[in-house]
Amino acid sequence: MCGIVGYVGFRPAANVIVEGLQKLEYRGYDSFGVATNNPCLEVYKCEGKISEKGERALNLHGTIGIGHTRWATHGVPSDRNAHPHLDCTGRIAVVHNGIIENYAALTRELAARGHVFRSETDTEVVAHLIEEYYDGSDLRDAVEKAIARLDGSYALLVTVEGSDVVVAARDCSPLVLGIGDQEVFAASDVTPLLGYTERVVYLEDGDLAEIDRTGWRIYSRGTPVQRPIEHVDWDVETVKKGGFPHFMLKEIFEQPKVFYDTLHGITEASLPERYRRPSEITVVACGSSYHAGLVFKYLCESTCRIPVRAELGSEFKYFTPPLKGIVTVITQSGETADTLAALKKAKAYNCPTLAITNVLGSTVTRIADHTLYMRAGPEISVAATKSFIAQLAVLMGLVDLMKGGNPFGAALERANSVIEEVLLLDIDKAVEICRPAEHLFYVGRGLFYPIALEGALKMKEISYIHAEGYAAGELKHGPFALLSTETPVVALCPPGDTYSIMLSNIKEMKARNAPIIGIGARGDRELTDIVDVFLPIPESHELVQLVATSVVLQQLAYRTAVALGRDVDQPRNLAKSVTVE
Ligand code: G6P
């Protein structure tokens, strides 16, 4: 969701913050703002993208400051609702990621005491609460008292005019400190810190940190605590476009290496014995991660004969199924609020928990009993691509370990070269079919059903074309009524058990005049003859075909979105890291 950056040091704070917020823009991009302390408070905030208008904040002075890039929850995107929010005196500035659930009651209370509110946000109340408790000298104490009144989730940065500290606090929203020499940074995640420092301190829920040029002090509900300094090995180049027109395309092209690295990162030592033969597995995740969970369900049930239930994070908290065995959460960011809530619930039920994530030090790694890491590097584009492929690599590796004897190991070694091949596939004709469509169907069976869901998700989120993923056999139970010359179908038809029935399904769709884009094995004459456009996948193991098909569908969505002139990396209304429920 929202991204926040704070800085205390010797550099011009506005430069550090604007540059950092640009790297965090994938968290939210409807408005932004910066406040610096020089020692007078200087504030600039406006609706729009920091990548386009960020320069306007660069003439703020001072070497202490806080900034924010917003994904609106309370109040429309506007200059007024952009953070930082100020108290009545205009001396206290606050940026916030999360949701203050009791803001309405607090606002009423403070308004009755004479506070004047200027925005529609839940955040502004925090500035006024701090004003209530601030005695003119001890900002930490005032923030401590204010956060004790808050319900909900927050990562907060606060500064007050004339002071040389920034106070940071978190509960259920991510916040990390970057430790430099005579300078300290604070941010929603490590990407703004890359290039400045590799030393980071992850704050825990309930922590409050006071940072100044000399260092940082952390308190947990008033008591001083030590948190370890950890090292981040992400390269600053990974958060640049590196000559590609979009991060999404760059990330698509990183996939051969990402799949290889991630697969090789899962070894015998990765999985403790207690996770190897569970009676049952419940997988919980959101978005693309949920689709990876569905692939795991099909694969693990058929290979290991262990029952696997795949649940959406947003449902799990409110409709918890009976739980047996282990609970596995899959999350690229490690910060998705619904997934974290599910994980906490699983722990409350005493289930052993396993996390699969891309981000070292993320919240999920602090809560789960054990973590398996993807090796995708930072993913900046909102649409998940390389992280999805990395999740497949982890999950295939996991099934290998659970089954024992490495059933897929050798076959998967070829995956990176097959991905490289399909990256060069000519998909122009398929793009031509998708581009004018208002509705698309994606169909597959078995293992390829979740890939159809993921392909449709990619297409709708970045091209804004309505796309639905369906189990191919289900189309007859309703959606057939929608098929016409104007409703193209992307049909996944790999060789294997479902091949013949998929061919029959495709013929039925063709008989209803739907243009068909077929994806199948290279050299498949029968399929080529019945579809309008055939996209061939090099002959390879079923799991490699599955990975390669996912890559083709990413390219199809990407190319269609570019052809339609969409904002590929930052699609409207979306955020990469959904840190509120
Ligand atoms: C957001 C992103 C999706 C992602 C989902 C889950 O909606 O836009 O691409 O799949 O969150 O994120 P996670 O970090 O938990 O995998």
Give a topology summary.
Layout: E1 3-8, H1 13-23, E2 31-37, E3 41-47, H2 50-53, E4 64-70, E5 85-86, E6 92-100, H3 103-112, H4 124-133, H5 139-147, E7 152-160, E8 166-171, E9 176-179, E10 184-187, E11 199-202, E12 207-212, E13 215-220, E14 223-225, E15 230-231, H6 247-253, H7 255-265, E16 281-285, H8 287-304, E17 308-312, H9 313-316, E18 326-331, H10 337-348, E19 353-357, H11 363-367, E20 370-373, H12 386-403, H13 409-412, H14 415-423, H15 428-434, E21 439-444, H16 448-463, E22 466-471, E23 489-493, H17 499-511, E24 516-521, H18 525-530, E25 533-537, H19 542-563
Parallel strand pairs: 16-17, 16-18, 18-19, 19-20, 21-22, 21-23, 23-24, 24-25
Antiparallel strand pairs: 1-4, 1-10, 2-3, 2-4, 5-6, 6-7, 7-8, 8-12, 9-10, 9-11, 11-15, 12-13, 13-14
The chain binds 6-O-phosphono-alpha-D-glucopyranose.
Fill in the keyword field for this structure:
581 residues; alpha/beta; Glutamine Phosphoribosylpyrophosphate, subunit 1, domain 1; Rossmann fold; 3 domains; 8-stranded antiparallel sheet; 19 helices
Would you kindly provide a brief summary of this structure?
Helix content is about 35%, strand content about 25%. It has about 575 residues and is α/β, with parallel strands linked by helices.
